[in-house]
Amino acid sequence: MDFEKLAQLDAADPLAHCRAQFVIPADTVYLDGNSLGLLSHATQARVAEVTAGQWGQDGIKSWNKHQWVQLPQRVGEKLAPLIGAAPGQVVCCDSISVNLFKALSAALSLVKQQDEGARPRHQVLSTRDNFPTDLYMVQGLSSIVGSERCELQLADESELLANPQAFITEQTAVVLITEVNFRTGRRLPVAKLIEHAHRVGARVIVDLAHSAGAMPVALDAWQADFAVGCTYKYLNGGPGAPAFIYVAKRHLPAISQPLAGWFGHANPFAFEADYEAAPGIEKMLSGTPAVLAMAAVDAALDSFTGVDLQQLRAKSVQLSELFLDLLESTGCANEFRCISPAQSHERGSQLSFAHDDAYAICQALIDAKIIADFRAPNYLRVGFTPLYTRFTDIGLAVERLAQIMADKSYLAPQFQQRHKVT
Ligand SMILES: Cc1ncc(COP(=O)(O)O)c(C=O)c1O
Ligand SMILES: Nc1c(O)cccc1C(=O)C[C@H](N)C(=O)O
Questions:
Q1: How much distance in Å is there from the Cα of 331 to the middle of ligand 1?
Q2: Where does this protein hold pyridoxal 5'-phosphate (predicted)?
């Protein structure tokens, strides 16, 4: 491994300075930011301040004094430029799953209004290989409103991309699409799918779980209708950090959502018996914000200040290409089947490899302080977070992977037992 050359790449990296903002686990190469991003020093300090300083010293006064009440909007506005959204369209709240439920209901009622009395369409089109929670939320909503109002229709991802018109039809009410496939890392052409959907009057919900903070996203330019995403992956908001939801401004006056909690009320502190939705994006809120967790997200987003997202994407591609090149040069690439697309523009910020012993290989890698992850049935995933992953890290990861494959140390009994949840 030519570590001198890798050090030169690190020295020339315009984002190299970002790494110092993070707490990097000792002697560890962390390639799992696609599942849980690392802690930043600023986040650590903010959580301490909000806990001891604000909650500890100011108690209940903090809702006003430290503007806890406005956190969902404030964090939403801070996040908006990272996903290509103009102000007034994003709030931070709940989980992706819960936000999907709200977005699905809102999108279906929007299409019903638009179809005015004609037999309302009810199909929600998604991909079979989507992250399961996305599909479960459609199934859950369907069990409440009935399949005549909401019915999940599944398409094979490759077939949908090859022939979108065959799947996105006049019967389609909503297209629910995740930009980057969590298993394969395949990046779907969202703008093109939105165009197809709009042509037949369908609305689109985009799941940005594996996009936000990893690459430029252009929700407004794409004319997306709704979007959801999490903050615990590439945005480094922390375990279980609250998610976000985007609603295009043009839809805000017409839409409503069923989880109509008091934080979405036009005047929450009037404590009125009747619900009146807030006029703006606040109507997507439900209950009290998780202040400590949201404060962590707020601080984590500061590490994107001054970061050019095109540069971020360029580094992500460079890191993934380097991984593939180095793996090839070690001679062990052919032991794996790379299930991620060959072309970098068709990938997110991860690579996935199929191998019968992927679970054990992943455990052996973790034991060697290379943090990757495993997804059933047999995929090894490595994620690249351009803010803190160095080119040198890729060299170390591939070197150790090659070693594990050469000495077959992954066959040791301690790596075989499947007892881990992630
Ligand atoms: C594409 C996608 N959607 C949704 C989720 C999860 O959503 P939630 O925040 O509700 O756990 C994940 C990963 O956890 C994901 O990869
Ligand atoms: N959200 C997660 C969790 O609460 C526990 C373990 C993993 C996760 C994940 O984020 C999984 C992730 N969406 C994935 O791509 O597999």
A1: 35
A2: 96-97, 131-134, 178, 207, 210, 232, 262, 288
Q: Is 422 in the pocket of ligand 2 (CB under 6 A)?
A: yes
Whether the predicted interface score ipTM is above 0.95: yes
Residue 131 bears catalytic tag: yes
Catalytic residue among 13, 129, 207, 298: 207
CATH code of 3-30+308-413, in short, is 3.90.1150.10
Tens-place pLDDT, residues 260-308: 999 999 999 999 999 999 999 999 999 999 999 999 999 999 999 999 9
CATH topology of domain 51-304: Aspartate Aminotransferase; domain 2 (3.40.640)
Q: Catalytic site residue 381?
A: yes
CA of 33 to the centre of ligand 1 (A): 14
Q: Residue 421: is its pLDDT beyond 70?
A: no
| Residue 49: DSSP 8-state | I
Kindly list the strands in the beta sheet with 151-155, ordered across the sheet, starting from the edge strand earlier in the chain: 90-92, 244-247, 226-229, 203-207, 172-178, 123-127, 151-155
